Request: fold
Amino acid sequence: MTQPIYTEITASISELKKNPMAAVGAGEGFPIVVLNRNKPAFYCVPADVYEAMLERLDDQELIRLVESRRSERGIPVTLDAL
Reply:
């Protein structure tokens, strides 16, 4: 059974064990897929890419929250009341 691979750079488990930083560096800042017996085992992404992914996911969740509350009625509040 074939599986899609969502990156252009691949590394085997053996390559990753031998020299992890070289395997990650081969991606030149892009994710790599680590293969186990020629099947994708996991994706390895640089820290800054992972952090950006988490930020985007968080932004998407906030957008959903705003959209769900958009139709709610507001409650008038004065600064003195806070």
Remarks:
- The chain has three helices and three strands.
- The helical segments are 13-18, 20-25, 47-69.
- Strands lie at 10-12, 32-36, 39-44.
- The chain has a mean pLDDT of 93.
